[in-house]
Write the structure tokens for this entry.
Amino acid sequence: MRPPHFTAEVEIKPAIIVEEETDLRIDEDGDHDRFAHYVRKSDIVRSNVDGVPVVALCGKRWIPNRDPSRYPVCPTCKEIKARLPKGVG
């Protein structure tokens, strides 16, 4: 006795691959270096552990390595933070 013949149907669908692009350029010039900037605490921790740049509210990208208490707060960051709802930023 022959076993029944089974036909397997395979459906092939196109795959969508989403790649996240991260801009890792670091700002090393300009007036941004004269200010302390607002950055998420979790981003600072990640930067300390993984060595990746952080992004301030004003858009500055850098790897923190200075004591921010020695610098005045960035006016752009300060203005953006003032417009955020309480508890955000």
Summary: Residues 31-83 form one domain. The mean pLDDT is 78.
